[in-house]
Request: fold
Amino acid sequence: MEPKQTNFDQKALKSERFISAVDYLIESKRITGQKELAELTGINESTFSNIRNKKKNVTDKTIYKLLDAFPGIFNSNYFRLKAYHLLAEEQTQAAEPAPDYVALPRWADSIIQLVTEQVKTIEDLRREVAALHNEISNLKRT
Reply:
């Protein structure tokens, strides 16, 4: 199986994201299809088809029409390629802080203990080095 090709062309990526938004609207039954979407947004059905068939790239104007027709549903930064979340609610959830406590697997305790011991060893070495520097300074003075 060949690895999936990643498209780094920003215009094409915007178009792919636009298509994913249209697919979401259809799958979530917010609209019945491209015809209804065309009526709600004022975008020609042929424009949707051309974007889906990769004959045209989506324009910012077309994206704004989609966002205006469905306020509060989509994360506008998703279409600007500045976010990974299509839906506005997903972006909000992702921005929430992590919980204070996270359950760790059992093996993590032994790693934490080992690291803690190493830190103590490093601190001991620093103290020894500081003490040796003091002794050297005292010897130089005499």
Q: What stands out?
A: The CA atoms of residues 15 and 142 lie 79 Å apart. The radius of gyration is 29 Å.
